[in-house]
């Protein structure tokens, strides 16, 4: 019967994970009083992350481009572009408290890039309200210990002294000497 022992391996692993879906309403101020929204889309998304206690902070920005008509739907304006910022706190649903290092890395990816769901003229008629959705998945990576079971049977195997039983001499005798070049022949 084999004896088992345990070893501890220090490795980087995912020590926390979280996901957050958000919707935001952004108010855009066009140069003319809008009559109707002809199109709205989100571009140039940028973000950065930081870890604070048991949440990951995702801070970013994107441009909301809106094309609209005015003067009773008789004229259109060039696309109005407005850069907006956001700050999402992503709580960690999975969190390993036994991290052995204070240095933690954060990995973040967008499951849903910011996307305009709906754009409407505001109730007072002077502005545009755009509904934007986004979703992030974050992972906190840190050093942790993993305990593995190893079989101790033969773990420290003793090597018997090698005995020359003549096999090496026989192998050397079978070599064809014409392929061997001496140093003197090279000169």
Main attributes?
single chain, 187 residues, mainly beta, 4-stranded antiparallel sheet
Query: From the alpha-carbon coordinates, what is the Rg to the nearest angstrom?
Result: 34 Å
Number-wise, the strands total 8
Largest beta-sheet details: 4 strands, antiparallel
**Amino-to-carboxy terminus distance:** 64 Å
Secondary-structure-based class equals mainly beta
Helix fraction by DSSP (H/I, runs of at least 4)? under 10%
User: Number of helical segments?
Assistant: 2
Number of self-contained structural domains: 1
Strand content: over 45%
* Uncertain stretches of 5 or more adjacent residues: none
Helices and strands, in N-to-C order?
A: EEEEEEEEHH
* 3D shape: elongated
Strand order of the largest sheet: 6-1-8-7
Mean pLDDT: 85
Question: What report would you give on this structure?
Answer:
- There is one protein chain.
- The protein has about 190 residues and is mainly β.
- The mean pLDDT is about 85.
- It has one domain.
- The longest helix is centred in the C-terminal third of the chain and has 7 residues.
- The chain has two helices and eight strands, in the order ββββββββαα.
- The chain is elongated and about 105 Å long.
- Helices cover about 5% and strands about 65% of the residues.
